[in-house]
Each structure stands twice: as structure tokens, then as C-alpha cells.
Automatic annotation (TrEMBL):
Keywords: Chaperone, Cytoplasm, Disulfide bond, Redox-active center, Stress response, Zinc
Species the sequence originates in: Acetobacter pasteurianus NBRC 3278
Phylogenetic lineage: Bacteria, Pseudomonadati, Pseudomonadota, Alphaproteobacteria, Acetobacterales
PANTHER family: 33 KDA CHAPERONIN
Gene this chain is encoded by: hsp33
GO MF annotation list: protein folding chaperone; unfolded protein binding
Protein name: Heat shock protein Hsp33
């Protein structure tokens, strides 16, 4: 016997996966530098393989996940922090978000014909070739009661790291150094990132740039630039060891690491509410031969089935 809808309002099973220490914040004492090292570990594979995108799109999505994880962990907020990229390329829309508790999700909308044509011509396209011209937005959403904070800039640069650095250079007025990586490894898909932020020095209301501070920032970015993708994505290389290798001469202080998790917030109840707003004709059109309407969450790719007849009665 079919379970009544009111007992079946929860989400179907999706991986209950938490990666402790996914984000490791750190700072370099006495220097105008703070940073975060992000490693999604097995979470990258779990999130990315729920979608059936060609490898270049998967790599872009993995980097987007690492970016939102890094940026969200630098903010004090309750809610979700999201990256949205919208352009005229074969990947027409890319959304990745991370909550204040480290729950991650993404979706990419692709024009499959245009994507196939691009990949035929350029098997390893840049992120820019995938996205085309358009804009990127970063949004902090703290729920309906609070103002949404949003910054939007044009997409500039060849890869997502450069696009994000351009964002900070043009909209947030503080220097950032960003490396993002996502690759298929022997252990599956892995994604990660290293972000350095230039912060005001102690007592720092002065605009006058201290030469020593400038030199410290330069040194930190040069050291960060020696991190290889292979090291970043290697599960067997402990994060502390990696940070120590990069910054041990720069008075490295590591703060409390934060967890990342599989984080879709879809629910049967929420999708049912959406369906109830549709006109009867649309519902009939969506109905399959078996009498069900299937709604698929575009983030976690889970199918939710609703009996058409139940929605009809609710909508009247
Ligand atoms: Zn979902």
C-alpha cells in the first residue's frame, strides 16, 4: 500500500556525508595575511558524480564548490552563501552554495548541443570557454527577514580562480590570492582550494601602505603559488603538513578546522508546495502514463514522485 503523502514528506536518501576538517583557516602572525585551505576529499566525488556532466564541466563545478566553501567560512552569517555564474557559453548557469554549517551543493545548466560542439573543437576548454561572457554574483542569503547582500561583476579571466580574484579586485576592495583545483584522481574526483586574503594590519586604519606589509603579502602569495594541484588533492598528505610546508617560515597559526557536508536542502514538502502553484493544464502536461508527476531536484538529482490525482485535489 502506498504511503500517504503526509507520512512521506521527507527527503529520499541522499548521502549523509560529513568531511571533518574540510576547511582549515589560518593566519600568518604579524603579517597582513589570513587564509583558508579547502579540501573536499570524498565529498567532491559524492557531490560531482550525482550529475552526469562531461569532465570539463565537472572540474568547473568542483572548483566552484571549493570556492564557496572557502569564502563562506570567512564570513559570520546564518544562512547560505552562493556563487552564481550566468553567461552565453555552453554552461549557461552554474550555482554553488555553502551554508554557515558547511553544507555544500551545486548545479550546472548546460546547452548540450553547444557543449558537444565546443568539446569537439577544444577537448580541454577553459572555464571561460565553458561559461562565455556574462556575470558572476556572490550572495549572502540570511533568510526572508534579512537583507540579501549581493555583489555582481562581469566574468573576466580564463579560469574560475582568476574570475574570483577579479571579483574581489573590483567589488570588495581587498586583495585576494586564489587557487582552485578539481581533478579525477585514483581515489575519484577531488576538489580543493587555497585562498589568501590581505587584511588590514594591526590598528589598521591607515591607508599608507607599509612596505614591510606589502613585502609580507608578496612573500605569502609566492609561497602559496608553490602549492601543486597534486599536493592539494592528495588525501594522503595531511593538511597541516601541507600548510607547514608552505608557510613554516611565516609564523603560521592554524585555527579550528571546519567540517563540510553534503548539503541539499530540498524536501518533498517544498516541492509539493511548488507543484500546487501550477495551473491544472500544466500539471496534466507533466503527468506521466503511470499517473505520477516527477520533480527532480536540480541540486542533488533526486526524483520526487507525486500522484497527479493528489495534487489535483489539493489545488482546487
Ligand atoms: Zn536536492
Amino acid at each position: 500500500m502506498e504511503k500517504p503523502a503526509f507520512l512521506d514528506r521527507d527527503r529520499p536518501d541522499v548521502p549523509d556525508l560529513v568531511v571533518p576538517g574540510g576547511v582549515t583557516p589560518f593566519y600568518l602572525a604579524g603579517r597582513p595575511v589570513r587564509g583558508r585551505l579547502v579540501r573536499l576529499g570524498v565529498l567532491a566525488d559524492t557531490l560531482l558524480t550525482r550529475h552526469d556532466h562531461p569532465a570539463p564541466v565537472t572540474r568547473l563545478a568542483g572548483k566552484a564548490l571549493a570556492l564557496v566553501a572557502a569564502l563562506a567560512s570567512a564570513l559570520k552569517f546564518q544562512g547560505s552563501f552562493s556563487l552564481q555564474m550566468k553567461g552565453d557559453g555552453p554552461v549557461s548557469m552554474l550555482v554553488a552554495d555553502c551554508t554557515n554549517t558547511g553544507a555544500l551543493r551545486f548545479y550546472a545548466r548546460t546547452d548540450d548541443e553547444a557543449l558537444a560542439a565546443l568539446l569537439e573543437e577544444t577537448p580541454k576548454p577553459t572555464d571561460r570557454e565553458l561559461l562565455g561572457n556574462g556575470y558572476m554574483a556572490l550572495t549572502v542569503d540570511q533568510g526572508p527577514e534579512m537583507d540579501r547582500h549581493q555583489g555582481i561583476v562581469e566574468i573576466a579571466g580564463d579560469d574560475l580562480s582568476a574570475m574570483a580574484m577579479h571579483y574581489f579586485a573590483s567589488s570588495e576592495q581587498h586583495a585576494c590570492w586564489i587557487m582552485l583545483a578539481c581533478q579525477m584522481t585514483d581515489a575519484g574526483w577531488r576538489a580543493g582550494g587555497l585562498i589568501l586574503e590581505r587584511i588590514a594590519g594591526e590598528g589598521g586604519s591607515h591607508v599608507v601602505e607599509d612596505e614591510a606589509a606589502e613585502a609580507s603579502w608578496e612573500t605569502a602569495t609566492i609561497l602559496a603559488g608553490t602549492l601543486s594541484t597534486k599536493e592539494l588533492l592528495d588525501d594522503s598528505l595531511p593538511t597541516l603538513q601541507l600548510l607547514h610546508r608552505l608557510f613554516h617560515e611565516e609564523d603560521l597559526h592554524v585555527s579550528q578546522p571546519r567540517a563540510l557536508a553534503f548539503g541539499c536542502r530540498c524536501s518533498r514538502a517544498r516541492l509539493a508546495n511548488v507543484l500546487e502553484t501550477f495551473p491544472q493544464d500544466d500539471l496534466d502536461h507533466m503527468c506521466q502514463d503511470d499517473g505520477n508527476i516527477v520533480m527532480t531536484c536540480e541540486f542533488c538529482n533526486v526524483d520526487f514522485r507525486f500522484a497527479r490525482k493528489n495534487i489535483a485535489t489539493q489545488a482546487q
